[in-house]
Amino acid sequence: MTTTAITAEERSELFVAAAKAKETSYSPYSKFRVGAALLAEDGTIFKGCNVENASYGAAICAERTAFVKAVSEGQSKFRALAVTSDQTEFISPCGICR
């Protein structure tokens, strides 16, 4: 498997897309908005946000939302993932996604 580093332009696009995705977060319980942007091998960017449910186990994280959207559109190879929140410090993908 070969990996290709992403360009500075792709990185910037991913950060912007993740920030835009965060704006659509549905997080009335935790108030923890998260956005993700997934770069497919062909250059397509898929955005995802976290979507909570009163039954916490039924919530879906931003990363999985982006992956589900990509896979449902026929994508299966990815190059990068950007994740953002309202936190000022570093965050990593959720436990399930790690």
From TrEMBL:
Its cofactor is Zn(2+). Zn(2+) binds at residues 61, 94, 97. It catalyses: cytidine + H2O + H(+) = uridine + NH4(+); 2'-deoxycytidine + H2O + H(+) = 2'-deoxyuridine + NH4(+). PROSITE patterns: CYT_DCMP_DEAMINASES_2 (PS51747). It comes from the Eukaryota. InterPro entries: CMP_dCMP_dom, Cyt/Deoxycyt_deaminase, Cyt_deam_tetra, Cytidine_deaminase-like. CDD domains: cytidine_deaminase. NCBIfam families: cyt_deam_tetra, PRK05578.1. Belongs to the cytidine and deoxycytidylate deaminase family. This is Cytidine deaminase. It comes from Mucor saturninus.
